[in-house]
């Protein structure tokens, strides 16, 4: 093959590569699909789902629910051990060989925060009581992330759905067992998830569940927050993004996907859960809409795996309700 042919061959393949890359990152071409699954899964909401070694672990939720494990290669659910008691309103995180839970327990509206972190070991299918949480830092409905061998817990609510929505920010060192109180976030919020992208922690969605009227206890459903608060770990500083969440909801799904932050579903003033999918482009710093969920849902879980987004469980209506379906966001 002469030099000109080699050049043309290389150019064609480069064009094919960049065209493929452009298509793969054009999320306007993606849609949500409800998939058929096998095996038994417990419908639930106020739960969390994380990926561990290529499988998804659906944990907690209202009621005493077993851990359900989803294999995305076979679309099969498997039932595992129940926790020692009801755990809900939390964002689970994975560190080494364990899944960490900082949650609430009890019945609406006076749920109480757990006194300890709880650990679930997937490979052993066992639960273990972890370190005690300082009494004045216990809460549920908080965002939780892992960064540099520490769990960071941000915002949350002290006492169920009654009072204590806060902007607290704490860390737990997984190596030394030390708790540290950090600079408060710019806004109070609960019923939300946080996410780490590079050296930034993003707080997106949520509401002020402490907000009540004497004649309308559930007024808090409409107190959703559009503000996106960001903490930079290198500068140890908070700031609030100029661009607000277009459709603010509480308890929406949150993932990092193809250099974008995807926020989907949630609950708010509507009777039904939201089916919106909202995309924040980290390059342009702008929000845009994407294809909606087939079923609006909140308080389930979201996982990115094999260039797809998976969501499972949750409630299809504001407040209580249980789903057992799985939707996948992908190119059709």
From the N-terminal CA to the C-terminal CA, the straight-line distance is 38 Å
Helix and strand run: HEEEEEEEEEEEEEEEEEEEEEEEEEE
What is the CATH topology? Neuraminidase
User: Which class do the helix and strand fractions yield?
Assistant: mainly beta
**Superfamily at the CATH H level?**
Kelch-type beta propeller
Number of strands: 26
| Uncertain stretches of 5 or more adjacent residues | 1-24
In the CATH scheme, the class would be: Mainly Beta
How many separate domains make up the residues?
Answer: 1
How many individual helices?
1
The rough form would be described as globular
| Percentage of residues in helical conformation | under 10%
Average of pLDDT = 93
Range of strand content: 35-45%
Radius of gyration: 20 Å
Topology record:
Layout: H1 3-25, E1 30-34, E2 47-52, E3 55-60, E4 68-71, E5 76-79, E6 93-95, E7 98-101, E8 104-105, E9 112-113, E10 116-121, E11 126-132, E12 143-147, E13 150-159, E14 163-173, E15 179-181, E16 193-197, E17 200-204, E18 229-232, E19 237-240, E20 253-257, E21 260-264, E22 277-281, E23 286-290, E24 302-305, E25 308-312, E26 326-331
Antiparallel strand pairs: 1-26, 2-3, 3-4, 4-5, 6-7, 7-10, 8-9, 10-11, 12-13, 13-14, 14-15, 16-17, 17-18, 18-19, 20-21, 21-22, 22-23, 24-25, 25-26
